[in-house]
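sry for the spam today, last one i promise. struct tokens for design, 134 residues
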């Protein structure tokens, strides 16, 4: 008899919970309809705006390079090597429509040719200078 009552109670509880209209995520059906209407409106707005929806052209990304040498002025990468790597980077990103191009740094020009003091990580003045060039 006890087992029957426990089973009946469990069954009644299960049936009551099955009638709950909320979804697992806790969003009601009315809220879902509101979100769906907003989504349709937003998609229509994006589709109508050609500057947002037209991604057929390449996207251009400006970059500049810091060429760092040790304190004796040696060890810096050659400019020609940087340009070769820029071409390789553009070739790698061409399939997804991204192209990188060089811009002149406002202070240092096309290439920042920094002489890196060997103790840059231990000298606060040099660390400040390196941070200022970013």
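last one done:
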């Amino acid at each position: 008899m006890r087992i029957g009552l426990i089973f009946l109670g469990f069954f009644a509880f299960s049936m009551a919970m099955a009638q709950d209209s909320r979804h697992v995520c806790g969003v009601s059906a009315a809220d879902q309809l509101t979100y769906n209407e907003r989504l349709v409106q937003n998609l229509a707005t994006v589709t109508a705006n050609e500057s947002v929806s037209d991604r057929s052209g390449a996207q251009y990304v400006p970059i500049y390079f810091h060429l760092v040498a040790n304190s004796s002025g040696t060890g810096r990468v050659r400019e020609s090597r940087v340009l070769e790597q820029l071409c390789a980077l553009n070739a790698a990103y061409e399939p997804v429509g991204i192209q990188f191009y060089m811009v002149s740094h406002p202070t240092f020009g096309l290439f920042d040719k920094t002489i890196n003091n060997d103790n840059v990580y231990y000298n606060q003045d040099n660390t400040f200078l390196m941070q200022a060039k970013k």
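The two ends are 79 Å apart (CA to CA). ok im logging off now
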